[in-house]
Design brief:
Length: 505
């Protein structure tokens, strides 16, 4: 066993990690593991890299393996969780030995936490506390985890289910909300959202000014009515000589959204867009993004189409910032309203009967027809299995067949799965989003699947480009345009996220 070479690979992986090159780090840790599969630090470090790429299922597997391959680490001693020792690059052998005592449990607990599985996370952090009973940071993190679980139990206890639940939207009359004389921001005159209003609102947002809650209610409620009337799969027709633009995840990066409009024009009937889910969370201007997209939907219903992503859900919004941002910038009353409207978003679109567009990916079984997607009752929080879950969460894989999801939800599907789905539904191409790509896009599965991601320099650290795709009828060939990030005010990503999650990021 060439343990020296394995250690050299680990050092290279650590450097890649520090440079935010997480895929490269994972490849190097994997090579180290192939040489020495009994070194727990390689698995624990790779788990952290997977976490950075939001591959929480893979992170849980690696953290579990780190615990399994060398359980004696649990007797190695303790260290302060507040120090740099929790990172996968350590400065001394003694620091490694101390860190490994809890790193497997720590990394697995953090991954469970990121998935919203608070009860599973609690078990791992209880183990961390057991190993390090006198460590103040271990005590603090366990207490925060216990609080999260208690809050979850309370919410479950008071939740209203089924037919007893009333619509929040139907209890709101925005006409009765007074606009104070001192308000100088954008105003909607009457019932119609105009281009002049939207431009004024965008200027206000750009200058970090707020929209009055009366107009915010009006935009969200009018959008809800339009979305409710749509099927779960929307067919879009593009006339000959006309074009259509598809954008991927925006994730609260409002200033990059403005840049898309600078590059490609504002949404309109002559310049229609589809934003393919994950409008919110992570970025700290998610409210500005969603109100912008909804306002354009009100102004020009055929000029902008919106699809649901996995982050248009209560569970994700609670963890990754949107809920906290809405509460801070508007009011707590809007949180439930947005959750209700997100349940109205369609799940997929088909352009000219040829291009299938979905946020996540394809299915765990063959034979799924477009008619099956149309039949999905989408007016709910996303389930943890089934067609709706897979549409929102699945990812492509290079190998044929199907495999477990690296995210821990949905599945991974190969090129043969994509090919059969297209053939069975007389389609030419799958376009999906959901994954950060270095160039803003990636073409896979023999050219039959394109991933597009529209949040450049994701979370201010990934260094990736953004992209969007323009299709022109009748040939409907994808023309991919890439772009770089633009400056934004000094508000960090995840500024409104769950404090507990930020402790472990």
């Amino acid at each position: 066993m060439d343990t020296k070479r394995a250690e050299e690979l680990k050092v290279l992986a650590n450097e890649a990690f520090k440079g935010n090159k997480y895929n490269q780090a994972i490849d190097l840790y994997t090579q180290a593991i192939e040489i020495n599969s009994q070194n727990g630090v390689y698995y624990a470090n790779r788990a952290f890299a997977h976490t950075k790429l939001e591959e929480y299922g893979s992170a849980i597997q690696d953290a579990t393996k780190a615990i399994e391959v060398d359980p004696k680490y649990s007797k190695a001693g303790c260290f302060s969780l507040g120090c740099k020792g929790v990172l996968p690059y350590f400065n001394s052998v003694s620091c490694i030995l101390k860190a490994l005592s809890i790193q497997g449990y720590y990394r697995r607990g953090a991954a469970y936490l990121a998935m919203g599985k608070f009860k599973d996370a609690l078990k791992d952090f209880q183990q961390v506390k057991k190993i390090c009973p006198n460590d103040p940071d271990a005590t603090k993190k366990l207490k925060e985890c216990e609080k999260a679980v208690m809050k979850l139990k309370f919410e479950e206890a008071i939740a209203v289910h089924g037919s007893e639940k009333c619509s929040v939207a139907e209890s709101i009359d925005f006409h009765t909300i007074e606009v104070e004389p001192q308000y100088t921001g954008a105003r909607i005159e009457g019932e119609v959202v105009t281009l002049d209003f939207v431009k004024k609102m965008l200027d206000d947002f750009k200058n970090q000014k707020s929209l009055h809650r009366r107009y915010a209610y009006q935009i969200v409620l009018q959008t809800r009515e339009m979305l409710r009337a749509l099927p779960s799969l929307v067919d879009v027709s593009i006339a000959e000589g006309k074009h259509f633009t598809v954008c991927g995840d925006v994730h609260g990066q409002f200033y990059d959204l403005l840049n898309i409009f600078e590059l490609n024009g504002l949404p309109s009937e002559d310049n229609p867009y589809l934003f393919n889910g994950d409008f919110v969370d992570r970025g700290s201007f998610s409210l500005e993004v969603i109100l912008t997209l909804f306002a354009f939907k009100c102004m020009s219903p055929s000029g902008i189409h919106l699809a649901r992503g996995n982050h248009e859900s209560k569970n994700m919004n609670k963890i990754y910032g949107f809920e906290g941002e809405v509460k801070s910038k508007l009011s707590e009353a809007f949180i439930e309203l947005f959750a209700e409207v997100f349940c109205c978003l369609p799940l997929a679109h088909v352009l000219n009967g040829k291009v299938f567009i979905v946020h996540g990916g394809l299915f765990s079984v063959d034979g799924v027809k477009l008619s099956d997607i149309r039949k999905i009752d989408r007016f709910c929080e996303p389930p943890e299995e089934g067609l709706m879950c897979e549409l929102l969460w699945s990812d492509p894989q290079p190998l044929p067949g199907r495999g477990p999801s690296k995210r821990g939800v949905g599945l991974s599907f190969g090129g043969d799965v994509t090919k059969r789905f297209l053939q069975e539904n007389n389609l030419d191409l799958v376009v999906r989003s959901h994954e950060v790509k270095d160039e803003g896009y990636e073409i896979e599965h023999d050219g039959k699947l394109i991933t597009v991601f529209s949040a450049p320099n994701y979370c201010d650290q990934m260094g990736n480009k953004g992209a969007y795709i323009r299709f022109e009828a009748p040939d409907m060939k994808p023309n991919i345009v890439t772009f770089s990030s633009v400056p934004h005010p000094d508000v960090k990503p995840m500024a409104y996220a769950n404090n507990f999650l930020r402790m472990f990021s």
